[in-house]
Each structure stands twice: as structure tokens, then as C-alpha cells.
Amino acid sequence: MPILQVRDITKVYEGKVTNRAINQLSFDVQKGEFIAIMGPSGSGKTTLLNLISTIDKPTSGEIIFNYIKPQNLNKTDLAFFRRRQLGFVFQDFNLLPMLTVEENIILPLTLDQQPVEVMEERLKRLAQKLNLTSILYKRPNEISGGQAQRVAIARALIHEPAIILADEPTGNLDSNNSREVLELLSKINQERQATIVMVTHDPIAASFCDRVLFIKDGEYFNEINRDDRRQTFFQRILNVLSLLGGGQVGDLSSIRLP
Ligand SMILES: Nc1ncnc2c1ncn2[C@@H]1O[C@H](COP(=O)(O)OP(=O)(O)OP(=O)(O)O)[C@@H](O)[C@H]1O
């Protein structure tokens, strides 16, 4: 049984001009998978992530998490579902500036009114794992971008969600920090069997995943699975991107991955 089933979803934005951003898209995500979603600008990636994250509702079709259909939940149950089942990592980190690193990380548990002992135990474990112990009492403006994204990842993990949704998590990081964050996501995926769905423009970031799903004009275009070597997976991602168009694949094809 897949942890996430996307079944024939369509999203139409109504306005002066009607825009079909997602058109009859279906795919499954298995528990413990690390999947990237790629596609040219305007292909519907953010729309898709908003639908999966229940921020928006599909015009038709359905999204099923385990056995739960969020579209059928009332507002209170939906808010509870989102808080319990989903973890979010954004491009611009989305940390609250007036809270310390520690307060930011435990925020999902605070909102859930979890006992202090649970918070302390999980915080300690995660801070050690993500190398954040020395900055727990700093505020977001006192830490680096790479550290801020590690804090955001800790916040996304602390309530042990069923799925982590990441929207361009390395979009604001330099290459070293990007690599560190991707290695961290990979490690979390392997060690905790965490399921991660990541939208990215970056073929290097996508090469850390098990599978890449490509969409074009809101429709399924192709998907490829990782093989033994990340370098060959990366080259295969570039091949599909060059078929998709809209990128600078030529500049990247000579890159050797570290
Ligand atoms: N709120 C909205 N109202 C109307 N149209 C929208 C809205 N949001 C997105 N669109 C349109 O839907 C299509 C898909 O947009 P979306 O932002 O999902 O693409 P994307 O793949 O995430 O693009 P990018 O890579 O540039 O961020 C585009 O044509 C966009 O103009």
C-alpha cells in the first residue's frame, strides 16, 4: 500500500483566463521513498505540492495518505492532519525570527501541546543528529543559511510526520551547504525510513533521490529510478530535462559529481 496516492488530479484556476495547472495526474509514493518532482517553470510543481500539502484542493481527482482522504476532512480535522502527518521544508527556511533555534524546532510539538519531557527528549536527539546543539539559543538572524535549513529540517522532523514535503530546499544555499542539506535528507530517508517529496529545479539535488518524476504542462511526462551510481543517474536526469526543454542542461552535462 503506497503511503501517498495521487489519483487522476486536475487543478483549474478560475479567473479572467481559465488555467489548467494540473491535468489528470496520477502517481504513487511508497513509504520510505525519496522522490523529486521536476519540470520546466510553470509546469505545475508548486501547484502539485500545494495540493499534496492540503493547502489547496484539486478541482477533480483525489489524494490519499495511507487511508486518509484530506479533502473529506472538516477544517479542524484538516488542521490536525496537517500538523501530525506533514513536515514542511521551504526554500526560504520560514523560521520565526523572534524565536530561538530551540523554540523554532519544538514549535510543532508546542502547537500540539505535547508534554515537556517528549519535547526535550526529541529536541536533544535531533539537535545532536543535525549538529545544532551549539546554536540552540541563537536566533535565526545569528545563524548561517545552511544552519537555518538544518533547523528547518529539524522542525519538519520533530513530530515524526508521515511525509516531509520540501519545496526547493537548496534554492537559497551555496553548493557546499546544498550538498550538506541533501546528504542530511538522504541520511534521514535511509536511517528513519522517512518519506520525502521534494520539488527542485536542480538536477544535482534530484540525483540524491530514489526516483524523479517529471511533469510538463501539468501532466505526467516521465519518471526514472536511481541506479547504482549517482553520476549516471544525474546524466539520465539531464537527458530527460533536455527533452523537456526550458533549462540550461548543456552547461551542466560536464559536471562530475563529488
Ligand atoms: N493562484 C493562481 N491563479 C492562477 N493561475 C495560477 C496560480 N498559481 C499558479 N498558476 C498558474 O498555473 C501554472 C502552474 O504554476 P506553478 O506555480 O504550479 O508552476 P511551477 O512549475 O511551480 O513553476 P516555477 O518552477 O516557475 O515555480 C502556471 O501557468 C501559473 O501561471
TrEMBL record:
Which cellular component appears as one GO term in the record?
A: membrane protein complex
Classification via PROSITE patterns: ABC_TRANSPORTER_1, ABC_TRANSPORTER_2
List the Gene Ontology MF annotations in alphabetical order. ATP binding; ATP hydrolysis activity; transmembrane transporter activity
Could you identify this protein by its name? ABC transporter ATP-binding protein
What Pfam families does the annotation carry?
ABC_tran (PF00005)
The UniProt entry's sequence similarity note says: Belongs to the ABC transporter superfamily.
Sorted UniProt keywords: ATP-binding, Nucleotide-binding, Transport
Q: Which organism is it from?
A: Lysinibacillus antri
Give residue ranges for domain ABC transporter.
4-242
